[in-house]
TrEMBL record:
<protein>
    <recommendedName>
        <fullName>Lipid-binding serum glycoprotein N-terminal domain-containing protein</fullName>
    </recommendedName>
</protein>
<dbReference type="InterPro" id="IPR038606">
    <property type="entry name" value="To_sf"/>
</dbReference>
<dbReference type="Pfam" id="PF06585">
    <property type="entry name" value="JHBP"/>
</dbReference>
<dbReference type="InterPro" id="IPR010562">
    <property type="entry name" value="Haemolymph_juvenile_hormone-bd"/>
</dbReference>
Amino acid sequence: MKKEESGGDEVLALDPLVVESQLLSYQHSAASFVVKLQGMEIIGLSEFIIEDVCVNVQTLAVTINLRYDSLLLDGEYDISGKLVKVIPLSTRGPFTVTASNARITLWVKLKTCRGRLEVGQLRSELVVGDVHLDLSHMTGGSLVSKYVSSHLANQIRTHWQQHEPELSMVLKKHLNDELKNVSLMSLQLLQSTDKYMRRGSLY
């Protein structure tokens, strides 16, 4: 698992971001099988486009809207089971989920610490648009393909919420790296200017 150092603590790397293995089961009159998903990584989280940034210099609250042209979820699947309770089903291979038009909103609360700005609190939300699934060596007919496709298509959508602590830690580190270039003197100047403008003192 790829990790980075952050002040003595190890945090997950942003790109690729490792996803935990999952074991799924499915029961139906036409088929019953177990699917193991492993070796999964989300690729592309560092390739974002900043669409909008809103900053309240008085409360140090920041909202950031990011857009991704595409995100990839790669991994391996292993299926075993039976079709119509008789025909053995066993197949494995790689898969790729491509999500386009994904958007992430970050709500950040900054704080001053040791003479500089740092991220105090961070909350995030990921919304995925169109999803395309590519399975290799897939057998078992449309029922099996439909079930596996449906689950994997939801992986990127649900992954953000399931792994919020790890993702927040990663994003917090990257934002703190960027904030090293912002001086408190610049912040204080912005705060003073903002107050005067609100009072009409600059008009």
